[in-house]
Design a protein that fits this description.
2 strands, mainly alpha, 26 helices
C-alpha cells in the first residue's frame, strides 16, 4: 500500500484542481439552497487527502533512492520537452508542508470568512493556489515549474482582487500581476536560452550540465541574470518588491499562504537553479547584492509602517533576501532550512493578526492597543511566531543562522544576519506593544477572542512552531554538537557567531521596549525624524521614482503608439478607402455600354503595361 501512494505521488497537485472544479456549482450560483459552506468542506477534504497522501509517500521514500517520473510531451529535432516529477524526501516533504499550511489556512478561513457571500469562489481559488504550490514542490522540470509559476501568478491576481468592488483592491491585484509578469517573461527567456545550449530542462540534469560548462563567461552571466528575474518577482525582491505589501488588500487566509509558502515557491525554484549561477561569479554576486539590499532595506521599512499586514509583508521580503544571499554564497542547504523555518513562523504571525483584524475591523496600528488581556491566545501565538522569526530563543531560525555561520567560508554573511535579526526583533516588539499593550482604544474595547474555527489552527500552528527545533533534531537536519565548528569556518564566526546572534536579538528586543511609541501622532513633529519616518514609510520613495521614470516612459510610448495608430495607420487605411471610393465614383461615368469603348480601354491599358515592362531599367 505504501508503494502505491509513493508511485501515485504525481496525483498530489491534482487534488487541488479537483477541489476547485467541485466548487463550481456553488461559486457559479447553480446551487444556492445549501449556502456556500459545502464548497469549503469539499476543498478542505481534498487538502486532507493531499496531506495524508503526502505523509504516506514521505514515509515510503525513507531508506530508498530518489527517482523521477518522466512523461514525454514534445520531441522535435533535438528538442525534448518532458514533464518530470521528483520523487525524493525533500520534494515530498515540501509538498506535505505546503498541504499542512494550506489545511490550517483553509480551516482558519472558515471562521474568518463566515459571513462572506462568495465563499465558494474563494475556496475554488485556494484549490488552484494549492495545486500550483504542491506541483512546484514536486516538479523536476523547468518547463512544468514555469507553467505552475504562471498559475501561481494568476491565482495571486484573483485572490488579491477577491473583493473586486473596491478600487484599491483592483489596483493592488493589477500591480501584483504585472510586477510578477515582468520577472516571468525574463525567466522564460532564460529557459529558452538554456534549452538551446543542450540542457534537458530538468533540475536534476543542471548540475551535470553545469559541470560540463558548455557556455562562455559572458553567456553564463546573461543566462544566470535572466533566470534570477523570475524568483526576484515571486519573492518580492528589489526592484520588484512593491507588489507584496499591496497584495495585503486581499483576504487574510490567502495572505497567510502568500507570505509563507508562495514566496517560498519562487525561492525554491531559485535554489534548484543554483548550479547555473555557479557558472558566473557575476550572477552569484548579483544574488548576494539583491538579497542584501532587500533584506536590510525592507527591514528598515517595517519600522515606519502603520498597517500591521504591510509591516509583516516587508519582513517577509527581508527574510527571502537572506535566502538569496545563501544561494549566492552556494549554500543551498541553508537556503532550504531558511524556507522551512520561515514558513511556519510567518504563517503563525499572519494567522494571529487575522483574528485581530476580524474582531476589531481594523489593521491600522494607531487604532489598536490593549488586546493582550482580551485576546490572550492570539497574543501568545504572536509571541511564539515573533520568537520563531528571530534569534531570541533557540528556534528554527536561530539554529539555521548558527549553522550558516559555522559553515560559512568567511564572515561576510554575519553582518547581514546581525542587522536583519536586530531590526526584526525591534519591529516585532514594536508591533506587539502597539497591538497588545498600552491603553485600550475605541476599536479594541469590546474585541473578543477568536472563534473556535480560527483558534484550532492557531493553537496547532503555535505548537508546531514551538516544536520546530525538535523536528530539526529528529530529522537530523543540522549538526547539533554544541558550538560545532566547520572545518572551513573562520575563528570569529565559529567562536562568537551564535553569541552575537543572540545579542543582536536581545538588543532589538530591548530597543523595541524602550523606544517611545505614540498612536495619535503617526508622524513626528521633529523635522529630521519626520523625514526618516516618511522615507521609510514610503519605501525610500521607490514607487514614486518608478512613477516618474518607468511608468512615465511607458505612458509616453503608449501615447506615441496611439498617435501613430490614429494618424498614420488609420490615415493610410482611410486614404486607401477614400481613393477607392473616389475612383469608383469617377469610373462609373465611363460606363457607356459601348463595346468599342471597352475594347479601346483594354488595348490602351495593355499597351501601357507592355511599354513600361520593356522600357523599365532592371
Amino acid at each position: 500500500m505504501a508503494d502505491f501512494f509513493l508511485h501515485a505521488c504525481w496525483f498530489l497537485p491534482l487534488y487541488g484542481v479537483v477541489g476547485a472544479l467541485l466548487t463550481l456549482p456553488w461559486s457559479s450560483g447553480l446551487i444556492r439552497k445549501t449556502g456556500q459552506r459545502p464548497a469549503a468542506y469539499v476543498n478542505i477534504l481534498m487538502t486532507v487527502l493531499v496531506l495524508v497522501h503526502g505523509v504516506l509517500a514521505s514515509q515510503a521514500i525513507v531508506g530508498r533512492e530518489a527517482y523521477r517520473i518522466v512523461v514525454p510531451w514534445l520531441r522535435v529535432a533535438d528538442l525534448d520537452l518532458s514533464v518530470a516529477i521528483d520523487v525524493s524526501p525533500v520534494a515530498l516533504g515540501g509538498a506535505t508542508l505546503v498541504a499542512l499550511l494550506c489545511l490550517l489556512a483553509q480551516v482558519f478561513g472558515l471562521g474568518y470568512l463566515e459571513k462572506e457571500a462568495s465563499l465558494g469562489r474563494f475556496y475554488g481559488l485556494m484549490g488552484l493556489f494549492q495545486a500550483a504550490l504542491v506541483g512546484i514542490a514536486l516538479s523536476d522540470s523547468l518547463l512544468l515549474s514555469y507553467g505552475l509559476l504562471e498559475l501561481l501568478t494568476l491565482s495571486t491576481y484573483l485572490l488579491v482582487g477577491f473583493w473586486y468592488a473596491q478600487p484599491l483592491v483592483v489596483t493592488a491585484a493589477r500591480d501584483a500581476f504585472l510586477t510578477k509578469r515582468v520577472g516571468d517573461i525574463i525567466l522564460l527567456m532564460g529557459i529558452v536560452a538554456l534549452s538551446s545550449y543542450g540542457s534537458g530542462l530538468t533540475f536534476s540534469e543542471l548540475e551535470a550540465w553545469a559541470a560540463a560548462s558548455p557556455v562562455s563567461g559572458g553567456v553564463a552571466t546573461l543566462l544566470g541574470l535572466s533566470l534570477i528575474a523570475g524568483p526576484v518577482g515571486k519573492c518580492a525582491q528589489f526592484p520588484l518588491h512593491l507588489w507584496l505589501d499591496e497584495s495585503m488588500e486581499g483576504p487574510n487566509p490567502a495572505s497567510i499562504l502568500r507570505n509563507s509558502v508562495v514566496v517560498s515557491a519562487g525561492a525554491y525554484v531559485l535554489i534548484r537553479l543554483e548550479p547555473v549561477f555557479g557558472l558566473s561569479p557575476i550572477a552569484a554576486d548579483v544574488l548576494v547584492a539583491i538579497g542584501t539590499v532587500t533584506a536590510i532595506g525592507t527591514s528598515l521599512m517595517t519600522l515606519a509602517q502603520i498597517d500591521i499586514k504591510r509591516a509583516l509583508s516587508y519582513s517577509t521580503s527581508a527574510f527571502m533576501g537572506l535566502v538569496f544571499v545563501a544561494v549566492g554564497c552556494g549554500q543551498v542547504d541553508i537556503a532550504l532550512l531558511l524556507l522551512f523555518a520561515h514558513a511556519m513562523a510567518k504563517a503563525l504571525l499572519f494567522m494571529s493578526i487575522g483574528g485581530i483584524i476580524l474582531n476589531t475591523s481594523s489593521q491600522n496600528l494607531t487604532e489598536l492597543g490593549g488586546l493582550g488581556a482580551r485576546m490572550p491566545v492570539t497574543a501568545l501565538a504572536f509571541v511564539v511566531g515573533a520568537a520563531g522569526s528571530t534569534c531570541l530563543l533557540p528556534s528554527g531560525v536561530f539554529l539555521t543562522f548558527r549553522h550558516w555561520i559555522e559553515e560559512a567560508r568567511d564572515i561576510s554573511p554575519l553582518g547581514v544576519l546581525l542587522v536583519v535579526n536586530l531590526l526584526a526583533a525591534l519591529s516585532l516588539t514594536r508591533l506587539f506593544r502597539l497591538v497588545f499593550l498600552g491603553p485600550v482604544q475605541i476599536k479594541t474595547r469590546r474585541a473578543p477572542e477568536v472563534n473556535w474555527l480560527m483558534a484550532v489552527p492557531l493553537v496547532s500552528l503555535t505548537l508546531l512552531t514551538l516544536l520546530m527545533p525538535v523536528a530539526f533534531w529528529h530529522w537530523d537536519l543540522l549538526a547539533f554538537a554544541p558550538l560545532a565548528i566547520a572545518a572551513n569556518a573562520s575563528p570569529i564566526a565559529a567562536q562568537f557567531g551564535a553569541a552575537l546572534l543572540l545579542l543582536s536579538g536581545a538588543i532589538g528586543f530591548g530597543l523595541g521596549l524602550v523606544l517611545p511609541l505614540t498612536r495619535t501622532g503617526a508622524r513626528s513633529l521633529q523635522p529630521v525624524l519626520r523625514f526618516c519616518q516618511d522615507l521609510l514609510a514610503d519605501g525610500f520613495y521607490i514607487e514614486r521614482f518608478y512613477r516618474v521614470t518607468v511608468v512615465w516612459a511607458v505612458a509616453q510610448v503608449s501615447r506615441l503608439s496611439v498617435m501613430f495608430d490614429r494618424y498614420i495607420v488609420d490615415g493610410l487605411v482611410n486614404a486607401t478607402g477614400l481613393a477607392t471610393l473616389l475612383s469608383g465614383q469617377a469610373l462609373r461615368y465611363s460606363s457607356s455600354g459601348q463595346s468599342q469603348t471597352y475594347v479601346l480601354t483594354i488595348l490602351v491599358g495593355t499597351g501601357l503595361l507592355v511599354f513600361l515592362a520593356v522600357s523599365w531599367p532592371f
